[in-house]
Description:
By secondary structure, the chain is an alpha/beta fold. It contains 16 helices and five strands.
Amino acid sequence: MIESQEKIKKSRILIVDDNEANVQLLEMMLDIEGFGNVRSTTDSRDVLSLQQKWNFDLILLDIRMPHLDGFQVMEQLSGLNIEGYLPILVLTAEKDMDTRLKALQCGAKDFVTKPFDRTEVLNRINNMLEVRNFYNERRWQAEILESKVRERTQELHDSRLEIIRRLGRAGEYRDNETGMHVIRMSKNCQCLALAAGMGEQYAERILQASPMHDVGKIGIPDGILLKPGKLDADEWEIMKSHAEIGADIIGEHDSDIMRMARIIAINHHEKWDGTGYPKGIKGEDIPLEGRIASICDVFDALTSNRPYKEAWADDKALAFINDNAGSHFDPNLVKMFNDVFDDILQIKKNFADPE
């Protein structure tokens, strides 16, 4: 309570009255009461600039003044983006209901009738400042809570993305110990999605979902996954099953990210001409995220070292992508991949595998 009273006494107060005697009387009353942050003006035209400069906690405002009357001053103040609750205490000799209603409509919160009664004026001032302090404290608490919610939401977002990447790496670790492939590939997907005009939200989802594209490799035996030579027909059938295994591992979930991750896992080896696996669907029947992931996965796989091959040069890998536009890859997406190829190379550089 004492702390609240001390805060009230420090409030910034502006007195606006064209009658100097009224101003001096109010200043004296406030000074005796311990208010030490009081300003005043007899020219109503100064109120707007004074409020912009000092951000007052309370304005004592006369109604009948030359130049701008109290109603016009309140109209000016209503156009400001004032933080919080600004109480206006109207000073008036008018007792008619029309004047009071109009003042309330313009933004006044209370009235004091001239000639002033000291006790009444001070009580109304204290009450209005208590309301303002209460309002501002609740607003500040809400802002603090909102900030904490944003911080916690970001932590959850970061944790979820890290878990997804780790899950993706669990599969990729089998034939790429650094796991940087899933990071490069997912960032490439985000880049290509933006180039395709899919917007920030979609691009963010594919960034988070695509690291799980090869999680099904967990279910492939080492003898097949790490075989240095060409796979025979039976081995290849087992290898291809990783797409469906991945979809089973991810499961069917209500989360937008997990739904997209499942779609990518089962579709990123489908081909534009229908010769891919596991379902042999073609063209735009292949979900867009699967078509995006296909290009980005193949490019990064070609330009990465594997137990069974050396990394290709960037230009050779790009040539492969271009040569297979319309057969393996969506030709429109290939054009966009070329458009952002400098960005793709920068991602490759920023997230390179350790030597």
